[in-house]
Give the backbone structure.
Amino acid sequence: MNQSNSAISVASTPQSTPRSLWDDEPETSKPKAELPPLTQQAVRPLKQRELYPNSMPTDVHQWLELNKPHSFRELMDLRKTLYSRKCNFGKYHVTKRGHTSRGEEKFVLTGPVSAILILSNRCRHYLLRTLNRLRRAEGWPPIAYQ
């Protein structure tokens, strides 16, 4: 009889919400080692210029401002140099620098004022597209190969 009374008294008490298993964990004696916050540099991969600060520049726009072709003939020399990647035409010449870690050919393009390190075909094509925009802006004739 005593057992049934205790069962009734337990059933008549209001139900409390179940205790979470993870919220009230006991503190361990070992303090947790907190990791330092990641810097902006650690969050994103480093660019070529940041990895090697004393290396050759890779900024296409900056190089083009200094080494801009002044005539249609110079533009064609620069385009031929970029397409061949072997020969020197006019004021522009190429020096091969091996391959990148992805296996793409890298080379140095030297103009009348400065040089630029071309690290990929995407960079080379971007420079060619930029030269085409320059051709249109200058009003030079369309490029026709014979």
User: Anything to note?
Assistant: Strands lie at 93-99, 105-110, 115-118.
